[in-house]
Structures are given as C-alpha cells and as structure tokens.
Specification:
Blueprint (H helix, E strand, L loop, with lengths): L5 H5 L2 E6 L6 H17 L3 E6 L4 H7 L4 E4 L10 H8 L9 H8 L1 H10 L7 E4 L2 H6 L10 E5 L9 E3 L2 H11 L6 E5 L4 E8 L2 E9 L7 H5 L6 E3 L6 H17 L5 E8 L5 E7 L9 H8 L4 H10 L6
Parallel strand pairs: 1-2, 1-3
Antiparallel strand pairs: 4-7, 5-6, 5-7, 8-9, 8-11, 9-10, 11-12
Helix pairs in contact: 2-12
Function: Cell wall formation.
GO molecular function: ligase activity
Family: Belongs to the D-alanine--D-alanine ligase family.
Length: 314
C-alpha cells in the first residue's frame, strides 16, 4: 500500500485509463467504465481517458495526479504505460514496469516460474511460424498440445490442437499475433483461477465453461452458459495448494496490487500454473471481483483498495 489515505485521494485528480490499442480494447472499455462508475460513486474526482497515442498530452491537459490503469493487453499491461507514468511521476495502480512486462510475455514468465520451482506445463517456444511448423514432428510431448501467442491476453489466439493439421493451422494464426509462439503440453483437468490482493491469496474460483476451455467466447460472449463456483469445490489441501501457487507466482514476478492466475488441477491433484494476469478484468462480473466479493470485498471497495495502492515503482 502507498502512503495515500482515502482523504488524500479524494483531493486528487484520478485518471482512469482504459480502451487502448490492443486486441483487448473492448474488454478494457468494460473494465474502465465499471471502475470509473465505482470510484465516482465513492466521491473521487475521476476523469476518463481512452488511451491513444496522445496519452502524454491527455494526462498533462487533464492534470491527472493518480492513474488507475484499466487497460488490458499490449501497450497497457506490458509495462509500456507503466514506464510512461514513471517518467511523468504519476503514481499508478498495479504492477511496475518489470513485473508487467514479464507477466505479459508468457515465455519469459514461464522461465521465472520454473526458476522459482512453480509447476507449469512443459513447453517449447518458437520465434517464427516457420520454426514452429518445422518442429511439428519433433515436439518433446505428443498431441494434444496448446498453441498460443506469447504476448496476447484474454485467451486471444489460443488453440487446443489434437492433430498435426490442427497444429499447423493454429501456428499460422498465432504467428500473426504478438510475440513468439508458445507450444505447451496439454494438461487435462479442472480450470481454476486464484486471486491475489496486496500480497495475500484471496481464494480460488472454478470456471466450468460450456466450451472446450475458457476461451475468449466463453469469457465474454457465453450468454450466461459459463458457471463460476466460489469457493472452488476442492479438497482443502488442493484449495490451499492452488492458493500457494498463485501467491508464489505473484511474488516471483514481484507484482503489486492484484493479480489473477490461471491454473489447471489434474484428477490426481497436481497443480499447473498456466499464466498470470497482472491487470485482470475489473467489471463486476469478472473473476477477481467475484473472488473478492466472496471474501466480503464489494466491487467499489476493491477499486478503492487498488487505488490506495497507487505508487511509483521505479
């Protein structure tokens, strides 16, 4: 937490940064609208800023003193905006430049997790589509595999591939998106998500998607067919293990504020960390707010708590 009290923050101009230039713009617009409404309802002086190339000028013109980052994806979740705010000496919510950059790049994040002994699925990374296609018959694990771009979020461009042909099609699609191509061994199990707030494990929610996995459509276009179970109905030892893994990931990257991690729990009780989200979705129906609500923290209270943690990290 920062040195800001609620009274101090009420006297400051708070810029809610949303929208942005990434493939997750639409998701960010929802997050920004929800956060802005919540903070205004609590009496904060809020200005909405739809982030574009003119962001430095907008921040200066609006005299923003504290930034609530409600961005997702490239240029917002990857350390770019965080670096700009550091240079402008504007305290901001969430993780700093390094944690944001590492968290956004799935390959580098995996390397950190492995170095810290955090279980994560075996993988190969390829710089180009040609390299990934050439390795179709020499992967160190068999099909099915998961193919994903290393620097996209919200499950954009993620494919579960059961055959070689599906793999080649997925590689072609992933190669058009941001970052290198990550190919993971597919781990079958229950999809659970763990939240962390202010360096404390908040709890675990289970996602039961009507689709094959919790992809972009299941997250944002499911029409209510996805089920969310909090607390996740797990044996106590497995529930605690997921909490431990998510907190370990948060600490390994030296995250600040909040994070939400995606985890697979196998039938035998093994826990595998898939990835970490350093700026998770923040609508009232998003997973981190659902977890927080289960712990007695309502949505406006969660937004206020994150705002109180706004700091410069460099």
């Amino acid at each position: 937490m920062s040195g800001f009290s609620k009274d101090e923050l009420k006297r400051k101009r708070v810029g809610v940064l949303f929208g942005g230039l990434s493939s997750e713009r639409e998701v960010s617009l929802r997050t920004g609208a929800a956060v802005s409404k919540a903070l205004r309802g609590l009496g904060y002086d809020v200005v909405d800023i739809d982030v574009g190339k003119d962001l430095p000028a907008r921040l200066a013109a609006e005299k923003v003193e504290v930034a609530f980052i409600a961005l997702h994806g490239r240029y917002g979740e990857d350390g770019c905006v965080q670096g700009l705010l550091e240079c402008m000496f504007i305290p901001y919510t969430g993780s700093g430049v390094m944690a944001s950059s590492l968290g956004m790049d799935k390959v580098f994040a995996k390397q950190v997790f492995i170095a810290h002994g955090i279980p994560t699925p075996p993988y190969r990374a390829f710089r180009t589509g040609d390299e990934a296609r050439a390795a179709a018959d020499s992967l160190p694990f068999g099909f099915p595999v998961v193919v994903k771009p290393s620097r996209e979020g919200s499950s954009v461009g993620v494919f579960i591939c059961k055959t070689r042909d599906e793999y080649l099609t997925a590689v072609e699609a992933a190669s058009k998106l941001a970052g290198s191509i990550l190919v993971e061994q597919y781990i079958k199990g229950r999809e659970v998500q763990g939240g962390v707030l202010d360096n404390e494990a908040l709890g675990v929610i289970e996602v039961v998607a009507a689709r094959e996995f919790y992809d972009y459509q299941a997250k944002y276009q499911s029409g209510g067919t996805t089920q969310y179970l909090f607390p996740a109905p797990l044996p106590p030892d497995q529930y605690e293990r997921v909490n431990q893994v998510c907190l370990a990931a948060h600490r390994a990257l030296e995250c600040s504020g909040c994070s939400r991690s995606d985890v697979i729990l196998t039938p035998s009780g093994e826990v595998f960390l898939l990835e970490i989200n350093t700026l998770p979705g923040m609508t009232e129906s998003s997973l981190l707010p659902k977890i927080a609500a289960g712990r007695g923290i309502d949505f406006p209270g969660l937004c206020e708590r994150l705002l109180q943690g706004a700091t410069l990290k460099a």
